[in-house]
């Protein structure tokens, strides 16, 4: 219990640290909005409500997404991404401060057991990530018993420098470091600012050198946008892990579409049976109502045991993910028919089959298409998760494998592509709704 | 000869709160071509009565016969016009009207001519290709009337057909219903809430009393004939005889409603 409370407290503290940043972001949004409105007023443009409403706050009909705001928000995300990754897309003046790279120096003062002190210089060569570590040049030892030393480190990292090892009186002889750049230091104590980084002593008395990490992200955490774009071109042309990018994405889409279609093919008739017959509803209600809240992801282990990690397992999983959604959508579509429509059809001489074909099926289409939209979304989420677990092709497998090899650019590229495909699927489903059921919400 | 006969209909529902007697011993007979208006306070069983005639409900006792044949279920010989929401919004206006003939297997070309004629009759010529949801409430009821006529039923059953319309549209539609009645000579059973509408349209008026639902009064009316002769409905409404009759029926129904309220209040 106490561990849980400590975790919760830690979480709350972490969340609290984020609040100023969120506040700053919101303040930026409001500032840009104020500038935009001011600019429009100075240009003499009226506010864009053709209906000349005087009250717009609280009137949902008066709220339209401002296109300019959308463009700015996306630009801001890309801009922040570029600025904090030192992207070549931005002039360096707009970059966040970069990590120190180049040559840094500091001096340390060592004290021998007899109380004599001597000073020596440490040269630190800081190289950028991705660059080969430069060779340490030959350093003249300098004067006195403390000899000059050197170290090589990647930008943003910390290195321990055993500067005393080449001294005439080493740490093993009882000598210890007492100052850096003339400023006294203690083991494990405060570190000294050198202008290009910080130098301190570890608890065991070794020099610990941290060149200034700057504000930029290392490519291993977040590569710049152009690196992701370049990676897109590269794997689109030459593929990744024995399959082209289109094969990876195509497999994911194929699994979703075939799993969804199978689910709809069985789920819609099942839903109709449940909506039209009390016996069928009684029979299937417990099954459907129990299976529906089970997250499809929870079925992955069982599906792997039963069907293995091949195509069949994934399609079965997606079939199960869409089956219950489609059955419930079709059931509520049937149940939602107005009795007056059914009565009217019978009074016009329709048979039961004709009532089903001409009244119940078209009447249930809006619900079924809404269900299909939900099911496609769930299937897309499920396929990516299933591929994360086990697959040899697919969008999820691509980003999971890339993450094991720390190919962060592929991970980000994969996430963007997965998002783009999910968004397109939803767009297609909405277009299908507009084309197939223009009467939706207007009857 | 009587055409539509309701013979000692009784209806009891067994609801969780105990049995409810919706109708007791209701008998009516309509000659061909009669327009009968049924009025009554809410809960007097008007809609139950209509549903039994339509064949959607089976009476506990008694039976309905149309031209001597007992009614056992819904059929195209009894057309229905509902208050609203009974049109098929996935079909165009023309397809809605053509629905009945299509179910009976009438050829497409023949259907087209029929639909055109009917749409003209209800004042919607040229609206055939429109979607139902593009029409106003009054126009939708015109489509419902045309759809019902397309099935060429022997009897038309109307359940508050104008109940959801605004006052002005309603008045226009009353004229249309009267005109269609005169032109087609159909037998019409009209259920309504509106005393004025019942007096204006019915050639005969049945007032029902509630709990159990039963016939309280059954009498002929002169006003529909005046309106159907092509007379001005507004003029009919201005007749002193019309106003007098309206007040009389209104206070009758008013008293019934008061009695129900009183009884419910006393029981509580």
Description:
The complex is a heterodimer of chains A (443) and B (268). Chain A contains eleven helices and nine strands. With 443 residues, chain A is α+β, with helices and mostly antiparallel strands. Chain A has three domains: 69-96, no CATH class; 102-211, no CATH class; 227-436, MetI-like (MetI-like fold), CATH 1.10.3720. Chain A has a five-stranded mixed β-sheet with strand order 3-2-1-5-6, with no helix packed on it. In chain A, strands 4-9-8-7 form a four-stranded antiparallel β-sheet, with no helix packed on it. In chain A, strand 7 (192-193) and strand 8 form a beta hairpin. In chain A, helix 7 (311-335) packs antiparallel against helix 9 (352-389) and helix 10 runs antiparallel to helix 11 (408-436). The two termini of chain A are 55 Å apart. Chain B folds into two domains: 2-77 and 159-267, 3-Layer(aba) Sandwich (Rossmann fold); 87-152, no CATH class. Chain B is globular, with a radius of gyration of 19 Å. The mean pLDDT of chain B is 86. The interface between A and B is medium-sized, with 23 and 30 residues.
List keywords for this structure.
A: 443 residues; alpha+beta; MetI-like fold; 3 domains; five-stranded mixed beta sheet; four-stranded antiparallel beta sheet; B: 268 residues; 2 domains; six-stranded mixed beta sheet; 10 helices; 10 strands; 42% helix; 25% strand; globular
Q: What is the strand and helix layout of this fold?
A:
The complex is a heterodimer of chains A (443) and B (268).
Chain A: H1 2-42, H2 67-83, E1 102-111, E2 117-127, E3 149-154, E4 159-161, E5 176-180, E6 183-184, E7 192-193, E8 197-201, E9 207-211, H3 225-238, H4 245-276, H5 278-291, H6 300-307, H7 311-335, H8 339-347, H9 352-389, H10 395-404, H11 408-436
Parallel strand pairs in A: 2-3
Antiparallel strand pairs in A: 1-2, 1-5, 4-9, 5-6, 7-8, 8-9
Chain B: E1 2-15, E2 18-31, E3 35-39, H1 46-54, E4 61-66, E5 69-70, E6 78-81, H2 93-97, H3 99-103, H4 108-121, H5 137-150, E7 155-159, H6 167-184, E8 187-191, H7 195-201, E9 204-209, E10 214-220, H8 223-228, H9 233-238, H10 240-267
Parallel strand pairs in B: 3-8, 3-9, 6-7, 7-8
Antiparallel strand pairs in B: 1-2, 1-4, 4-5, 9-10
């Amino acid at each position: 219990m106490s561990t849980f409370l400590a975790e919760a407290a830690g979480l709350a503290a972490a969340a609290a640290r984020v609040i100023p940043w969120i506040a700053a972001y919101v303040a930026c949004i409001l500032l840009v909005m104020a500038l935009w409105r001011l600019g429009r007023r100075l240009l003499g443009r009226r506010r864009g409500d053709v209906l000349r409403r005087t009250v717009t706050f609280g009137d949902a009909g008066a709220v339209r997404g401002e296109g300019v705001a959308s463009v700015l928000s996306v630009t801001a995300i890309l801009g922040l991404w570029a600025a904090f990754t030192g992207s070549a897309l931005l002039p360096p003046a707009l970059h966040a401060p970069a990590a120190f790279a180049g040559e840094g120096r500091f001096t340390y003062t060592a004290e021998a057991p007899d109380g004599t002190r001597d000073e020596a210089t440490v040269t630190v060569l800081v190289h950028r990530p991705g660059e080969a570590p430069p060779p340490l040049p030959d350093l003249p030892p300098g004067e006195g018993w403390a000899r000059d030393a050197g170290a090589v480190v990647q930008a943003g990292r910390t290195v321990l420098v055993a500067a005393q090892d080449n001294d005439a009186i080493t740490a093993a002889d009882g000598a210890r470091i007492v100052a850096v750049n003339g400023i006294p230091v203690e083991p494990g104590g405060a570190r000294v600012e050198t202008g290009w980084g910080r130098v301190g002593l570890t608890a065991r008395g070794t020099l610990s050198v941290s060149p200034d990490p700057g504000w930029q992200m290392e490519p291993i955490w977040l590569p710049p946008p152009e690196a992701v774009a370049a990676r897109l071109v590269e794997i689109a042309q030459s593929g990744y892990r024995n399959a082209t990018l289109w094969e990876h994405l195509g497999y994911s889409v194929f699994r979703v579409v075939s799993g969804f279609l199978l689910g709809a093919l069985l789920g819609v008739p099942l839903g109709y049976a449940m909506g039209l017959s009390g016996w069928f509803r009684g029979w299937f209600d417990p099954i459907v109502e129990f299976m529906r809240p089970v997250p499809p992801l929870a079925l992955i282990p069982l599906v792997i045991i039963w069907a293995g990690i091949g195509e069949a397992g994934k399609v079965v999983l997606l079939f199960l993910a869409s089956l219950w959604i489609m059955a419930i959508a079709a059931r509520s579509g049937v149940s939602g028919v107005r009795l007056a429509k059914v009565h009217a059809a019978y009074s016009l001489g329709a048979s039961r089959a004709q009532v089903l074909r001409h009244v119940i099926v078209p009447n249930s289409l809006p619900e079924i298409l809404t269900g299909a939209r939900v099911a496609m979304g769930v299937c897309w989420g499920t396929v990516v998760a299933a591929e994360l677990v086990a697959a040899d092709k697919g969008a999820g497998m691509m980003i999971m494998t890339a993450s094991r090899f720390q190919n962060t650019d592929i991970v980000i590229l994969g996430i963007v592509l997965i998002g783009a495909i999910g968004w397109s699927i939803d767009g297609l489903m909405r277009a299908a709704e507009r084309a197939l059921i223009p009467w939706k919400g207007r009857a | 000869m009587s055409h539509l006969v309701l013979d000692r209909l009784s209806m009891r529902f067994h609801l969780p709160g105990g049995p409810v007697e919706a109708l007791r011993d209701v008998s009516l007979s309509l000659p061909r071509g009669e327009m009968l208006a049924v009025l009554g306070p809410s809960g007097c069983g008007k809609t139950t009565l209509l549903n039994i005639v339509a064949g959607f409900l089976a009476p506990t006792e008694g039976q309905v016969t149309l031209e001597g044949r007992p009614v056992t279920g819904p059929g195209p010989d009894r057309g229905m016009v509902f208050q609203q929401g009974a049109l098929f919004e996935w079909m165009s206006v023309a397809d809605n009207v053509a629905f009945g003939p299509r179910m009976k297997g009438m050829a497409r070309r023949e259907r087209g001519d029929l639909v055109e004629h009917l749409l003209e009759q209800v004042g919607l010529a040229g609206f055939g290709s429109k979607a139902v949801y593009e029409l106003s409430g009054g126009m939708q009821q015109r489509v419902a009337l045309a759809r019902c006529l397309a099935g060429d039923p022997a009897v038309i059953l109307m359940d508050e057909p104008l109940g959801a319309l605004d006052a002005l549209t309603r008045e226009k539609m009353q004229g249309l219903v009267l005109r269609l009645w005169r032109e087609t000579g159909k037998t019409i059973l009209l259920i309504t809430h509106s005393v004025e509408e019942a007096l204006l349209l019915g050639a005969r008026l049945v007032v029902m009393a509630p709990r159990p639902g039963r016939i309280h009064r059954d009498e002929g009316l002169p006003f529909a004939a005046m309106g159907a002769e092509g007379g001005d409905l507004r003029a009919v409404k201005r007749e002193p005889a019309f106003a007098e009759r309206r007040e009389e029926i209104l206070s009758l129904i008013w008293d019934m409603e008061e009695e129900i309220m009183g009884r419910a209040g006393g029981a509580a």
